[in-house]
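JOB MANIFEST
job_type = single_chain_structure
chain_count = 1
residues = 88
[input]
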Amino acid sequence: MSGVDCAEGQIRWACVTGAEISINGPRATLTQNSKTLLAEILAPSDAEFEVISNAPPTPDERQNAGTHILTITIKATAEKPVAIAADG
């Protein structure tokens, strides 16, 4: 489990992966080579996963083909800790 307790400001949790990603509410399923990893946002309850590009800003850089970033970005406060669990 990853967690950040009593932080204030904006927090981003991210995972770079070559797996296929399926998002269902606070859960994400990553599948690659017949293996599965399940990730779940435990807190805060209003956080959502997002899949974003892993491509760099210029074409001169390595383009990271076949990879994506699974992320959540939230405003965290002392009353709103962040916790993410993964199992697989």
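[summary]
Residues 20 and 88 are 14 Å apart (CA to CA).
Residues 2-87 form one domain.
exit_status = 0
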